Amino acid sequence: MNFKVPSGMESELIAAILAGDTHLYRQLIRPYERSVYFLSLSCMKNEEDAKDVAQEAFIRAFLNLRAFRGDSRFSTWLISIALNEARGRLRRQTTIRIVSLDEFQAEEMPVNPTLLRDWREPPSDFVEREEVRSHSGRPSRCFPTFTGKCFSCAM
User: Fold this and answer.
1) Is 98 left (phi over 0), alpha (psi -120 to 50) or beta?
2) What is the DSSP letter of 144?
3) Which of 13, 72, 95, 143 could form a disulfide with 76 if both were Cys (CB 3.0 to 4.6 A apart)?
4) DSSP state letter for 122
5) Contact at 8 Å (CB) between 46 and 90?
6) Crossing angle for the helix pair 74-93 and 47-63, nearest 10 degrees?
7) CATH node for 7-93
8) pTM exceeding the 0.70 threshold for the entire prediction
9) Domain boundaries of the chain, sorted by first residue
């Protein structure tokens, strides 16, 4: 059973839907249901999430049908909506697990000392950087080295 909508018929369907015949939307999206679902499934790797993404893509396409310019095929526009929805959901699902050190159980997860390291700049590095910055602003040709001799005269 092939439900492919000819491109000329596609634009007529869109015009009719925008005119108020919203029941025709089902006829417009029917040929693309499987491709939108399989695209969503390939992104989400979970059937339930894929169904949610596909459904949300069809709803967004319906609500924004007036924004469809017709520069490309409706299927291309619909697929891009589904892809954007899947990417957005994946972005929202990506969370970093935070473990409280107060409630930490040694059997659950080993602690890596690099996770506990303070990544702020050490005060000695800050002072050294500020000192170099203050010397580099001076119009001087002679910078003392660690040996006490002038850097430009060290030869």
Assistant:
1) beta
2) B
3) 72
4) P
5) no
6) 130
7) 1.10.1740.10
8) no
9) 7-93
